[in-house]
Amino acid sequence: MKSLKSITCLLLILQLSLACKTVPITGRKQLNLVPDILIREMAFTQYDDVVKQSKTLNQEDELAKLVTRVGTRIQLAVETYMNANNMQKDVKKMQWAFNTIDEQIANAWCMPGGKVVVYTGLLPVAQSETGLAVVMGHEIGHAIARHGNERMSEAVLVGLGGMALQEALKEKKQETQALFLGLYIVGGHLAISLPNNRKQESEADKLGLIFMSMAGYDPEEAVPFWQRMNALQKTKTPEFLSTHPSDETRIKNLSLLIPKIKEQYYKSEP
Predict the structure, then answer these.
(1) E strand residue ranges, 68-107
(2) Where are the domains of the chain?
(3) How many helices (H) and strands (E) does the chain have?
(4) Cβ proximity of 159 and 177 under 8 Å
(5) Which residues contact 62 (CB under 8 A, 6 or more apart)?
(6) Which alpha helices (DSSP H) does 115-197 contain, by range?
(7) How do beta strands 115-119 and 97-101 pair?
(8) Per-residue confidence at 99, pLDDT binned at 50, 70, 90?
């Protein structure tokens, strides 16, 4: 029995070591147990359901055009970075979509694979196209860093009792689906990514600043944007901040990052 347990432990350790991936730009090692294709399939289904069930603006609406314009510019920046860093396969896996939901909540999110939603209630806080780029860059940063897969992998490891991955995905499809849905609060027409850890938030901040800079948006807007979000929090906790920690430490870290990122990546024209 001990021998069997030892073999099982060794196999699990080997599986975990082989499942490590590297986050783009930051170089952090992360757990990546679940195949990206499975994550994307579940994300795309969930995204379509939310968009269909919500009051989604027509793409010809001026606000929707704004969201799509910002998203497309950041998308091109992401693809430029990926193509320059031997990540062409990752570019092909993305299926970008930008939708605007007409609800007065200050929130935005990006599911794995590049599926983005912005709520109209966030736009007054963003105040400008550049302010919107801060939020969308941050959310897209989560997707590019595979934070959804990382959190799903951790959930699989705990929730499925350390089963071999292939067995877990084959024998426990409903449980796997439930774990993915557990990463999101889906109520009515709202899907909100649950809290990321501080490392993931810092990575999304950094990637977001880089991608918005490459897209031609001034990263210095990040500080006043987060200050506005903090001011909003004093009177009403917006949905965005309920799942995305925003504090003086974050603003301080952004202030330290911005000069270097602006010097290296920012171009005034996209």
Answers:
(1) 97-101
(2) 35-265
(3) 13, 7
(4) no
(5) none
(6) 123-126, 129-144, 147-159, 165-171, 173-181
(7) parallel
(8) very high
- Find, among 151, 264, 166, the residue nearest to 209 by Cα: 264
Beta strands 115-119 and 20-22 are unpaired
The SS3 assignment for 36 reads helix
Averaged pLDDT for residues 189-217: 80
Contact 103, 190 (CB under 8 A): yes
Is pLDDT at 215 greater than 90 in this prediction?
yes
Structure token digits, residue 120? 């109209």
52: which 2 tokens?
């269909």
Q: Which two tokens stand for residue 216?
A: 């031609």
Position 169 scores a pLDDT of: 58
Pull the structure tokens for residue 270: 């996209």
Spatial distance between the Cα atoms of 183 and 151, rounded to a whole number of angstroms: 8
Q: How many residues does the chain have?
A: 270
Query: How far is residue 141 from each of residues 136, 146, 201, 204, 239, measured CA to CA in Å?
Result: 8, 9, 9, 5, 19
Cβ-based neighbour number of residue 237 at 10 Å? 11
Say which residues have a Cβ less than 8 Å from residue 30's Cβ, sequence separation at least 6.
20, 21, 22, 23, 145, 146, 150
Coil, strand or helix at 108: strand
Give the closest residue to 107 by CA, choosing from 212, 194, 3, 198: 194
CA distance 257 to 212: 13
Report the C-alpha gap between 252 and 16 in whole angstroms: 35
CA distance 250 to 259: 15
From 120, 96, 104, 107, select the one nearest 47 (Cα to Cα).
96
